[in-house]
Amino acid sequence: MTQRLTIRRPDDWHLHLRDGAMLAAVLPETARHFARAIIMPNLVPPVITGDDARAYRDRIMAALPEGLEFTPLMTLYLTESTDPADVAAAFADGIIHAVKLYPAGATTNSASGVRDLSRVRPVLEKMAEIGLPLCIHGEVTTPDVDIFDREKVFLDTVLDPLRRDLPDLKVTLEHVTTSEGIDYVREASGDIAGTITTHHLMINRNHMLVGGIRPHYYCLPVAKRSTHQQALRVAATSGNPRFFLGTDSAPHTDPNKESACGCAGVFSATNTMACLAHVFEEEAALDRLEGFASLFGPARYGLPVNDTTITLEKTDMPVVYPARIDTGEGPVTLFDPGHSLYWRVTA
Length: 347
Ligand code: NCD
Ligand code: ZN
What we know:
Blueprint: E1 3-8, E2 12-15, H1 20-31, E3 36-39, H2 50-63, E4 71-77, H3 84-92, E5 96-101, H4 121-130, E6 134-136, H5 150-165, E7 171-173, H6 179-187, E8 192-196, H7 198-202, H8 205-209, H9 226-236, E9 243-245, H10 254-257, H11 272-282, H12 289-301, E10 309-314, E11 324-327, E12 330-333, E13 343-345
Parallel strand pairs: 2-3, 3-4, 4-5, 5-6, 6-7, 7-8, 8-9
Antiparallel strand pairs: 1-10, 10-13, 11-12
């Protein structure tokens, strides 16, 4: 029996496209299903100024294969020397849609991130004034905090004080991985939302560590215990518009992942919609997939919903997705949830 689900075309509110040959290889994987994506600025060197964002946007559009339509929504990488006027001008010109806060050292290519929040206060004040959202990688990086506690500690010691200090700042807590993060986003007053990745809905730390270490499940924030995974699944399928999709699809080549010191990042662009349909079906919430993937994000960013649709189809036979995609930089393994998928995007 074939089951079909047609929804507004989705958008990805947290995506790593990289640059050069990697960009050329991964961009079509997203653009095939998604109309728009918030593009992460953690290149080397990072996308810091409005001019950087404009140039990166042009490289993305140049890499887009003919026949695919896609709009990259650019972001700036916040540094302690970011100029508030440059940020405001890039927003006014429609070049950028958010600014990204990486605590220095929190994740891949975050060395130029923020060490002292007081040094970026003028930028944050300007953002609060003009309504430009701040996307936050919500983890502390202090060495004495256990890696599994980094998000929880960030909520109390950084996020909440920051939002009390600047109550008008629009904040997106990205890739939420803990029940504490979910509770914070759900209950906090003011303008806050949280993105949830596909892989954090499907795996917990046992999947990564039991029976052998699976480097392709290693990402940041690192997957937590299953009770947290459950909280994420409840939030994503709840229909609460504060929670929407940000895949955090983050390609690294296999040699860089399967290494004594492997990179953090899960590449899920190719099968993300199939995975999400699987999760939402398991949670008896297929009717809420459209809100999570296609409606709540645009509302949050003040953009219209897409006027085109995609159709997902479920068949009795498992759908075979490629184990990896080839890129000019080497193979990139696709996220494998560890069980069969029966959904595919057909149109
Ligand atoms: C991301 C990357 O590879 O750029 N990695 C990841 O594990 N998510 C960076 C990030 O979003 O933290
Ligand atoms: Zn990311």
